[in-house]
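Contributing: when you submit paired examples, paste them exactly as shown. First protein:
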Amino acid sequence: MDYSQIMGKLKSLKNQKNRDGMARFGIKTDKAYGISLPVLRGFAREIPRNHDLAGKLWKSEIHEARMLASFIGEPERVTEGQMEEWVRGFDSWDICDQVCSNLFDRTPFAYKKAFEWSERNEEFVKRAGFVMMACLAVHDKKVTDSRLEQFFPVIKKHSTDERNFVKKAVNWALRQIGKRNLALNKKAIAVAKDIKNTDSKSARWVANDAIRELESEAVQKRLSKKTQRI
């Protein structure tokens, strides 16, 4: 399936009702077709991974084409330059999250960009830094606890960011690291309690929400079972 065929298929899947719903969730829709994520995922399974095709789809600027690009891109061929070009094009939380979780967190530059982007001021670039942390905590099965712990000072530092899309990503990163295993769970809870003492409404929200989940019976039970299996 080539670029023209893919774009034609995407146009045929337009859904105005979904498009209206996207707008209510804070997603820009001026270049969106309103195609649901499950439908896009299903379509992506019909297309082999293709780095060059992913690049063309990204350049189309169509929301769903860019989502599709994240599914079919080849992580080993992604360059730092491409990552910087794409991250500058993030204009909604869902594009940010999908590109980071489907493609960028599997590249050799993932940890470097997590640190770099978290220090940037642009809202969705900054969000991307923390989304990368969250995704790496889930997807990188070989990473050591100590490497993930390096994210804690950054999380604490930026927990005071009042922007909704940033603070939610900061919270997400803290929770995902804390759900990896019991040792990191205890450390993440300690970090959250430290953040809770910060004189910032945003920081207190980040902390309280993380503590609520990380100390929950469901999470503690799952992590205990995971430890027993090991």
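Second protein:
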Amino acid sequence: MTLATLLLFAFGLVLLVVGAESLVRGASRLAAAAGISPLVIGLTVVAFGTSAPELAVSLKASLSGVADLAVGNVVGSNICNVLLILGLSALVAPLAVASQLLRFDVWIMLAASVAVLLLGWNGVIGRLEGAGLFAAVLLYTAWLIRQSRRETAEVRAEFEREFGELPAAASRRLWPVYVLQVLVGLGGLVLGARWLLIAAVAMARAFGVSELVIGLTVIAVGTSLPEIAASVVAAIRGERDIAVGNIVGSNIFNIFCVLGLTAAVCPSGVPVSPTALAFDIPVMIAVAIVCVPVFFRDQRVDRYEGLLFLVYYVIYTVYLILAARHHPALAWFRPTMLYVVLPLTAVGLAVATGRGVARRRPPADAAQSANGAQSR
């Protein structure tokens, strides 16, 4: 591997992040100048924008015949979003989980993750199936727009703290600036995706690992940089519900929009390798399942849970590297994780969830007293 490959990879990542930032800011201000609600902007334009690097890389990879990299990018990004980004954010400060996430969004994330396994079971996600996934993101966005009617002044203030003061609808003279920001962002995404893909393929060949592993690790983390920045900064600023919502929303858009659109535009769809079906996609589903008891327990993600997520991300990455190298350590590493660490974690989460439910449930005496008061 040459220095030129490393520089190409670094410049590609920088262009992806800068391009996504320019796209989000330009599109947000363009929509606001047109009089669109800040909540709708945050839940649609910003969500699409932070998933734009994944979309650019996956589309370019599929059209270039490197389909494993496209699937690995989406699956790896979703795993990275929860285990790495949510873990880091929770270490900064315990994260609040909004009630809406528990009622709706986290279940959509889980259903989308299972859909990837079911649709790819035959080895390919076809164009029609991809169109179905993309239709799902349109329905999801329509639901978000409906929810925006409940917007409050606090929502607008929170959005402005994150992305700056929104322009008035009358400031049409600045529209060319916003359009230019969007175009610069799109250009950065396209060029950054091209450079990153070329460098990633060269790196995979130099290290003797598959494009799937590169997509699941290096590119997944690289294209998740906008989510990392948004969630960690939100946690530092005390906007802790944004940190969790950003991750859940990004995972939904990654599957419905990125994977769906990639499969829909590619003539032969997106092939799904047996390795991804047997291991990586089930890991993505397991990560989504773990979010349910963690979020539900106290409607927050504590620091020790964030640390647990980070430890599992390290374990997952180590496993990928060992498997790619066919390292002898796999002989003890795999059964230890499967039969010791995972069961202990499952028991711990079950006990913690049970305690959380017990704390929420009112005492029997209090409930009887309340019923007696009502009868009187």
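If you have annotations for the second protein, write them as plain sentences, like these:
The chain has 15 helices and four strands.
The mean pLDDT is 75.
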